[in-house]
Amino acid sequence: MTRDDILTAALTLLDEGGGQGLTMRSLATRLGVTPMSLYHHVEDRAGLLRALSDRVYAGVLEGAGESADRRSEIHAILTRYHDAVRRHPQLTLAIFASPEAFAGVTRQITDRLTALLEEVTTQPRLWRDILIDHAHGSGLPPSASLERQEEAWTIQEQYRQSLDCLLDCLAAR
Description:
By secondary structure, the chain is mostly helical. It has helices spanning about 5-20, 25-30, 35-40, 45-55, 70-85, 90-95, 105-120, 125-145, 150-170. It is built from 9 helices and no strands. The longest helix is centred in the last third of the chain and has 24 residues, at about 150-170. The radius of gyration is 17 Å and the shape is elongated.
């Protein structure tokens, strides 16, 4: 059993049963090992969630800092984040329920957005929270009921359009 095996099984459990479905005991049962053997790879449930978020959100900051256009970078980060939230909504909800799991890549995403917004507004934390809450609000509810690819594309496109509106409002200030 490898750390990758653990993370793959944990993400599957989370996607299938939500935050309550992911316990060290249920994960061990899924993998056919004892719960104690998991602690050789992850320190606890919060550590497991941090590792999962690092895996799921790894591509969100791809290319960060390469563009001089702050608006485009903010848009790209938030679009990739929204896509990850839509794919694995239960992970986002589990992180909400376990604040100690907020670290690693999720912290880096927040910090990068804050830094970018500091360059374009006098209220960077307020706008960061508005934009991230918008990604959550748009990404979490619909994902539970999405069955068809066409619906997923529509939600993705609606999110991009609404994000453009919010960024236009920010630019106009």
